[in-house]
Amino acid sequence: MVRLQKFLAQAGIASRRASEVIIGEGRVEVNGQVVTQMGVRVDPQTDAVAVDGKLIQPLGHRYVAVHKPKGVLCTRKDERKRPILGDLLPADWDLKPVGRLDRNSEGLIFA
Predict the structure, then answer these.
(1) Sign of the C-alpha dihedral computed for residues 81, 83, 88 and 94 taken in this order
(2) What is the pLDDT of residue 92?
(3) Given the residues 52, 78, 87, 102, the one annotated as active site
């Protein structure tokens, strides 16, 4: 069992905080019942969760090996708009680098 807002975040719907807003707006249903309170627990294997009428499927874990070229940062975002590892991957993957390589290093990194 997992909290509903965490399930939505893990499914890529929104961040946990944004998921709380979506829940509070009454846009989420669990097993056909509208949920507006925080802390509701769901079982991703048995409960049917829908947002705006669309059934949400839990995402499995995804791991990838990426060749990081020189000049690319191993971070999720950069305020100075420099190239980041996420630029090399599809935007909807939302992966986090495991470890890091310096900006001027290149090599294999897992995300």
Answers:
(1) negative
(2) 67
(3) 102
